[in-house]
Amino acid sequence: QLRLKESGGGEVQPGGSLRLSCVASGFILDGYAMHWWRQAPGKEREGVSCISTNGAITNYADSVKDRLTISRDNTKNTVYLQIDSLKPEDTATYYCAAQQRNCRGGDSMDYWGKGTLVTVSS
Fold first, then answer.
1. Which pLDDT belongs to residue 110?
2. DSSP 99
3. Residue 63 scores a pLDDT above 90
4. Fewest CB atoms within 10 Å of the CB: 30, 46, 105, 117?
């Protein structure tokens, strides 16, 4: 079975931090750029970050660039998303996704996880 599994979501107050994890099974991540996406209720899915296969290049959406850090550990087949200074508008389901070779535009991913929910409220 080819699968991505996210974890680490939860409820947090504004200004707090979370670290999301995504673990792959059934395939090896080192040949894939890894993305994080999010989707808030009633809104379209939004790509927020991507990391290259070896971690040398990272990309962020302008709206979150100063608060998110993407990283990966290919020896553990895992990618991470650190979210700092959380805001209510960060409330969404966060998905990881794998894309062959390199980070590029569009939403055509090879594999998707099922998501982990982040809720930011006071």
1. 93
2. E
3. no
4. 105
For residue 20, what are its two tokens?
Answer: 């999301």
The amino acid at residue 12 is V
Task: Report helix, strand or coil for 74.
Answer: helix
Per-residue pLDDT at 106:
87
What kind and span of H or E run contains 58?
strand 58-60
Strand, coil or helix: 102: coil
Cα distances (angstroms) measured from residue 71 to each of 14, 48, 88: 23, 13, 23
Backbone angles phi, psi at 10, to 5 degrees: 165, -170
- pLDDT of residue 18 exceeding 80, the answer is yes
For residue 95, what are its two tokens? 């998905």
- How far, in Å, CA of 58 to CA of 52, rounded? 6
User: What number of other Cβ atoms are within 10 A of residue 81's Cβ?
Assistant: 27
Over pLDDT 90: what percentage of the chain? 89
Q: What gap in Å lies between CA 96 and CA 76, rounded to an integer?
A: 15
